[in-house]
Specification:
This protein is of the alpha+beta class. The chain is built from 14 helices and nine strands. It folds into two domains: about 270 residues, no CATH class; about 110 residues, Umud Fragment, subunit A, CATH 2.10.109.10.
């Protein structure tokens, strides 16, 4: 009874601090640097006291920890090496010893303590499934990135981008953490989340991903960890046969997962070829609004551009897709005059070859309309604009 009362007080405290985070008096910097670490340290102490004489019995714990470590570390290595394809960007964090320790206290320690506290709550609950679902929601709202989502999202487009960049990884990670706690215990959950958080404050630079691909990185790691642990759970705990595991487990879902992953990488421009949806009709009849064009971003293609080629180039803060109608050499540099096929006159400004980001190779009609509609909803841009935005 006493333990249950203490756990209820812990849960009420978590709810209260989440409500405070959405109050008008909320100060994000003060909250993350002062209130949050101390709050989770106190809850961690309570959890330790409650579990002094408790030992969770988990089958194949070593196998689960090992599988989780291999999946997470392997994918993080692949993620870091992928910067060789997309280039690198410097980390926003200072890497002096004192700064690393401060960032560990602010960013990593609260997450570690959160996992332990929620593991304690689930462990002592009689209705573990219901408690796990409730804990997942609490964990989402207890994460600092959730507050960033609401603070930084001021427009429909901002909400859309920040949902994928900030909130979706939080939701997926929280679901996997709670699943790991429920099926495998706190050590497996920490083996999953700890390296992901630590690498952020330790590495001096990261692959320069787009916001969408950065989000997908978290989703891919979470999904593969889930499948790895689920496979061990079916084999060691449920003791399913190999045929049953193959029909219900990870191997059955692997082709679909790989296809979806390749589609995500294709859309997010990791490969040499990538798709762009067309917003206007300035290139009729070659392709029109709602079409998807396939862009080749290979530098070797840019060196062989000829009159008549259709290029994608940067203009102000947008991208334009028009046809080359003239090539000039000025001061040792190559310039192109471009024109939309449906436009009466050429574009006003010449395009420097350094501003060209790709050559259009193929087009597919109608396939890009969902992207066009989303762009118009979230940006309010006129669908009959004379340029194509990538």
């Amino acid at each position: 009874m006493k333990k249950n009362l203490n756990l209820i007080l812990v849960i009420l405290g978590i709810v209260a601090i989440n409500l405070y985070a959405f109050s008008p008096e909320f100060n994000f910097v003060y909250y993350t640097r002062n209130i949050l670490p101390i709050f989770w340290i106190l809850n961690f102490i309570i959890a330790i006291i409650l579990t002094l004489n408790e030992k969770a019995r988990i089958k194949a714990k070593a196998d689960r920890i090992y599988a989780t470590f291999i999946v997470v570390s392997g994918l993080l290595i692949i993620y870091f090496l992928s910067g060789l394809l997309v280039d690198y960007a410097y980390s926003p964090y200072n890497h002096s010893i004192s700064s690393i320790l401060r960032n560990f206290y602010y960013l990593v320690l609260p997450v570690v303590l959160q996992v332990y506290v929620f593991a304690t709550i689930i462990h002592f609950s009689k209705k573990k499934i219901l408690t796990s679902v409730f804990s997942m929601f609490l964990l989402v709202f207890s994460t600092t990135n959730t507050y960033l989502f609401f603070i930084q999202s001021n427009t429909p487009l901002g909400y859309f981008e920040n949902f994928f960049l900030i909130l979706l990884p939080v939701i997926i990670q929280s679901m996997v953490i709670i699943y790991l706690i429920y099926t495998s215990g706190v050590l497996v959950a920490l083996t999953y989340i700890f390296p992901i958080k630590v690498i952020i404050i330790l590495l001096p630079f990261f692959p320069d991903y787009s916001w969408f691909l950065f989000s997908m990185k978290h989703v891919i790691i979470a999904v593969l960890v889930f499948f790895a642990i689920d496979n061990i759970h079916m084999k060691k705990v449920l003791r399913l046969s190999r045929r049953k595991i193959k029909s219900e487990g990870f191997l059955k879902s692997l082709p679909t997962f790989l296809i979806l992953t390749l589609m995500v990488l294709f859309v997010t421009r990791v490969f040499t070829y990538y798709p762009v949806a067309i917003l206007s009709n300035s290139m009729n009849p070659s392709f029109s609004r709602g079409s998807v064009v396939i862009v080749n971003k290979s530098s070797s293609n840019l060196e062989k551009l000829e009159k008549g080629d259709i290029i994608k180039y940067k203009y102000d803060n947008s991208y334009v897709i028009h046809r080359i109608i003239e090539i000039k050499e000025l001061g040792g540099e190559t310039y192109f005059q471009t024109k939309g096929d449906a436009n009466r006159s050429p574009d006003i400004d010449y395009v420097n070859i350094d501003d060209v980001s790709g050559v259009i190779k193929h087009s597919v009609p109608y396939l890009g309309f969902p992207s066009v509609w989303l762009t118009e909803i979230f940006t309010g841009k006129d669908s009959e604009a004379n340029i194509e935005l990538g």
